[in-house]
Amino acid sequence: MDAETVKSNINQRFDGLFYKHENGKVKPFVCVICDEFLKPHEVEIVSVEKLKEAHSILTPSAWNSVSPEILDCYTFADEYVDGTSNPEWMNDMILSPRSSYLNFADGRKKNGFCACRKCKHSLNCHEMPRFAIANNYTFGTPPACLLCLTEVELALLTPVKTFGYCFSFSGGCHKQLKGSLTYYKVDVESIVRAVMHWMYLKCTIT
Fold first, then answer.
1. Which residues contact 182 (CB under 8 A, 6 or more apart)?
2. pLDDT of 166-191, one tens digit each?
3. Mean pLDDT computed over every residue of the chain
4. Long-range contact list for 5-8, CB < 8 A, 24+ apart?
5. CA triplet 82, 125, 123: central angle to 5 degrees?
6. Distance CA 124, CA 161 (A)
7. How wide is the angle at C-alpha 80 spanned by C-alphas 133 and 109, nearest 5°?
8. Chain centroid to CA 201: how far?
9. CB 14 within 8 A of CB 82
10. Would you call 46 exposed, middle or buried from its count of C-beta atoms within 10 A (0-12, 13-18, 19+)?
């Protein structure tokens, strides 16, 4: 196979990983709800009507309030909803700024917002998607007072942990070190209860 054929095949594969707007702008496939990068075969379409129905779910309220700084960072930035600018009802919704409105001119799929399967299923059930940005799954930088900490220390401080690890090892001076690693989902409420119990014991002992 000659070099030009190889180059052409590689370019075709890369073209399939991105969405090209009519104005020539190229963007990756990103879920508009949870901000996750998607492969082309993972892309689901959420219609304008369905997203409008979810306005109350994906808009900050008393139970999922976010700071104004975060809200400014997570607004839909694409301006190609049927060739017009974003409607006013989207301005206060917490959506991915990297996502796109997909407009398939060849009619292969219905036009709509790029989303993942899990988030679309939750919206169809009129539920808050578990990993939605609006469910306080946001990404950002720590405050200045914590910048001196390492990445491991920052990970221990994060209020949201979806997975945990359990290490168990045995061995001695003349034995091979053996052990196991358990990977499991974490119940955040149980972590909070355990920490509060540990702090209570520490205060009573001291």
1. 165, 166, 167, 168
2. 666 776 666 677 776 666 666 667 76
3. 76
4. none
5. 30
6. 26
7. 85
8. 37
9. no
10. buried
Q: Give, as one character, the DSSP assignment of residue 89.
A: G
Task: Give the per-residue pLDDT at 11.
Answer: 76
171: phi > 0 → left, psi -120 to 50 → alpha, else beta; which? left
Selection from 37, 34, 36, 38 nearest residue 57 by Cα: 34
Q: What is the DSSP letter of 126?
A: T
Report CA-CA distances (Å) from 188 to 83, 159, 162.
Answer: 43, 8, 8
29 burial type by CB count under 10 A (0-12 exposed, 13-18 middle, 19+ buried) = buried
The residues with which 26 forms a beta bridge, in sequence order, are 20
Q: Check if the beta carbon of residue 60 is closer than 8 Å to that of residue 66.
A: yes
Radius of gyration of the chain (CA): 23
Predicted TM-score (pTM) of this structure: 0.61
Which two three-digit tokens encode residue 45?
């379409």
Element (H, E) at 160: none
- Decide: residue 115, CB within 10 A, 0-12 exposed, 13-18 middle, 19+ buried: buried
Please say whether the beta carbons of 74 and 138 come within 8 A: yes
3-state helix/strand/coil string of 73-92: HCCCCCCCECCECCCHHHCC
Count of H-run helices and E-run strands, the chain: 6, 7
